[in-house]
Amino acid sequence: MTAPASPIDAPETIEVESTIVPCDGGGGALGHPRVYLTMGANDSVECGYCDRKYVLKPGSPRGGH
Question: Model-level pTM?
């Protein structure tokens, strides 16, 4: 009999106030190259490196910075 698989932590979700967000993995030298992510119509975007999910805070204006 095999042991049940351990649950994997879900990627981090961060609320932001801009539809363009920088991500560097948050680990300093242990992170990843800084990338700038642009949200689509869903008001969210995921980083292709670290799978962090950025969600636009309710009431925040659509657009850049």
Answer: 0.76
Phi, psi (deg, nearest 5) at residue 28: 60, -125
pLDDT tens digits for range 10-21: 679 999 999 999
Alpha helices in the chain (DSSP H): none
Strands 13-16 and 53-56: parallel
Task: Give the residue from 36, 37, 40 showing the smallest Cα distance to 62.
Answer: 40
Handedness of CA 42, 19, 22, 16 (dihedral sign): negative
DSSP characters over 44-60: EEE-TTT--EEEEPTTP
Domains of the chain in sequence order? 13-56 (2.60.260.40)
pLDDT one-digit tens code per residue, 29-43:
788 999 999 998 889
